[in-house]
Design goal:
The chain is 31% helix and 11% strand. It is an alpha+beta fold. Helix 2 (15-22) runs antiparallel to helix 3.
Amino acid sequence: MVGEEDILFDDPTGVVQMVTDAFRENQTIVEEPNSEARKFFDMLDAAKNPIYDACGKGHSRLSAATRMVNIKTEYNLSEDCVDAIADFMKEYLPQPNCSPGSYYEIQKMVSALGLPFQMIDVCIDNCMIFWREDANLDACKFCRKPRFQVTSGRSRHAYKCMWYLPITDRLKRLYHSERTAGPMRWHAEHSFDGKISHPSDAKAWRHFQSLYPTFASDHRNVYLGLCTYGFNPFGKAGRQYSLWPVIITPYNLPPALCMKREFLFLTVLVPGPEHPKRSLDVFLQPLIHELQALWYQGVEAYDVSLKNNFLMRAVLMWTISDFPAYGMLSGWTTHGRLSCPYCQDNTDAIQLKHGRKSFWFDCHRRFLPMNHEYREKTTMFTRNKVVHETPPPEISGENILKQLRDFAADKTVEVGGNGHERTDGYGINHNWHKKSIFWELPYWKDHLLRHNLDVMHIEKNFFDNIMNTILNVQGKTKDNLKSRLDLPVICARDEQWERPNSYLQIKCKCEGCILPMDNP
């Protein structure tokens, strides 16, 4: 029901609606909001009070401050310039008025929104971040390279900085709005129809709740997912630059909401221009520290839908990435013969004699039921091969931790760079190149599913390889002389083999293949 005051007050800028969503004045508050939540009432007053008598509808002190911040960012204005504009506006508006008169006043008002960010200096080689107990160091403690550039002025500028946007306030904000406070309990209150339509319907989610019933008992605790992917912000035609955003998503919301843009929280921005490679964990330290606090201590939040305060905790359920980023997040190198993190050294991959690459064709039949007819086929898959092997055993979190204790190398001053050396047996018995920072989370070892693959990138790569081969795209087709020379060992279709003593390779002429198209 809309209150009378809401009807009389026009809100073309949307500021009033944003704050009113947090706390409806026309509803009875069962429990008094905590001090953090009370700040929203002050913002509500600021949004409804006009700058001066008889000014245009919707023009308030808060809307003026947010508009000025937007202008400063869009046109890259200096603080002195904003001070001059704010002072000019306050002087020329009818008196008395409550327009902010300086950039300091604007910052103070906008900061009450509770969405802070941090700029943290980083070693030029990504060895470490200058944070917490290392915040006052002037050089990297691993590679000894300086933190600051040499300048003629008094101010010091770091060679590299990262951006960190804390998630706690944004998670609390989800319970400050009636539009999202109720749906944040959807994961526990919806009816399960036997089909997996949401992560809460899956085995991994239910397994975690069975191990931590106290956490699961409060449906308002937050279940999070993390995803990351590198891209070039300047496009293909621009200079080489690798930028890696880290996104956090709350999975409490229903499927129609949890993947919407406003619920994808940018948390870490890893700067370039170089690829972070194995040093991604260095940039995740502030996030892991905050996730530990959200698990152990939690934070007090106010639920506007139930009108009471509660202790909000959070858990990171898994990560989502493509296969190369999988290796950066998990610590298991995703190339070479042991690239599969589930099969590990129990893989059926082989090394091609002529192609000199690892080859995983026909590694899938071992996952079929033991009586499946495909296990006996000797011509449809690898030549003259019958598969009797069982799938590799599932590796528990405890077993992985044991492997990491045996193989993982610690950072040392002598190593420098990303700080990790290859350990004994690397590429032969294991592919561990580091112990992932996610193992610092106390519940990480108990997850059934720790890392997910982004199917979109995998599908694209498969499609590109298949179409480039079918269309015989020069430089991109997989049909080459080396692959033809390896065919007799693998494939029973002798018409595709390379002819002995022939100069030119045989092109694919099988029925159903598409011939290469000539460009006009």
